Amino acid sequence: xxxxxxxxxxxxxxxxxxxxxxxxxxxxxxxxxxxxxxxxxxxxxxxxxxxxxxxxxxxxxxxxxxxxxxxxxxxxxxxxxxxxxxxxxxxxxxxxxxxxxxxxxxxxxxxxxxxxxxxxxxxxxxxxxxxxxxxxxxxxxxxxxxxxxxxxxxxxxxxxxxxxxxxxxxxxxxxxxxxxxxxxxxxxxxxxxxxxxxxx
Length: 200
Prior knowledge:
By secondary structure, the chain is mostly helical. The chain has helices at 18-30, 34-51, 61-72, 112-121, 128-148, 155-165, 180-185.
């Protein structure tokens, strides 16, 4: 008797659920009574949820599972869905074109977000909170710079760039930059040494 290899079987629509789930859905389609089909579909959805617990982190994950039932059945299963079932036409539509930002970035290694943050900070009234915010931004700029240049970065470079981003509205005497090694090591978890007992 020849072996029944997966390569010779029907291709799975959603391989992550395995062939048994696909076979269950195909079996449900053969049931004549719609109420019984729906009952069995609920049971299969419960099994699908157990097979893929990571889906529980997705908002409305049960809706997702019922959509997957429709996909596995090739949209050809007559059951009472607890949600609006997806339409086959939806999957034939071309994806929308993503519009990329056209605004120039002054310093690409800092990113647009830093530029916006500096712009918002310089509009704040002079206060300790404003100084703290600008210091945080300046140190983040230095850390971002170190991402591209691990060897060293002169504080004068960061302050010069900050002045340009802040359009000359920042009092640099209030900016205190951290040491490069502190910024690089910040957030790293300390390595735990292993204790070995000497054999007696």
